[in-house]
Amino acid sequence: MAIRVQLDAFDPGVETNALHAANVGVGAVVSFVGYVRDFNDGREVGGMFLEHFPGMTEKALTKIAVEAEQRWPLLNIQIIHRIGRLEPGEPIVFVATASAHRQAAFDACAFVMDYLKTRAPFWKKEDTSEGPRWVEGRSSDQSAAERWHKA
Amino acid sequence: MIRVQYFARYREALGLDGEQLSDSQGFATLDDLRQHLLARGGVWQVLAEQNLMCARNQELCSLDEPLSEGDEVAFFPTVTGG
Fold this sequence. Notes:
The complex is a heterodimer. Chain A contains 4 helices and 9 strands. By secondary structure, chain A is α+β, with helices and mostly antiparallel strands. Chain A has a single domain, classed as Molybdopterin biosynthesis MoaE subunit (Aldehyde Oxidoreductase, domain 3), CATH 3.90.1170. In chain A, helix 2 packs antiparallel against helix 3 and helix 3 crosses helix 4 (139-150). Chain A is globular, with a radius of gyration of 16 Å. The model of chain A has no long low-confidence stretch (mean pLDDT 96). In chain B, strand 3 (53-56) and strand 4 (59-61) form a beta hairpin. The interface between A and B is medium-sized, with 27 and 17 residues.
């Protein structure tokens, strides 16, 4: 398991390859990459700043990864999240899960993203065409996370 | 003492990223502490938001979470990472 919260950019391709390189028992790697868009909620976005809660962020991400490991037979899991200033087109978040077979990797990756969206202390402030604004939470993200509660 | 931290839009609205509170007021729960802050009026009403989130000792919790001397508490708006 690897959890990284960092200012620096990362290369999702390099990270994905590294996930199975160390273990030939890995039959499936599922990865998700979230990017900064240049448009959101009706406004052009020229970039954003990602604030977080140092200390709690790492704990929250680790807790999510541990829960994923308990629920699915994973061989590896990696979470990378950027903080600080980001430009449109840059990757913000990377989640990858490795397993012997695809279904566990698919489900665990979706689970980690849904929980990260609703439980990890990050906040986005966008620079828009009409000035800076804090991104508001979406109820669809809450619903996405709740589907795992029953599972 | 109880250490309180504010993040993101709340930090900006309050013009404050954190403070130390004496627990001599005897806050039994996190909501008791929040009510104390709300009683300051003005900008503090931001903590009345329905989708406010909170943490005790860096773990998400609900407003009825019990508080103890030395705890670290945080209030913040709905998280928007990912």
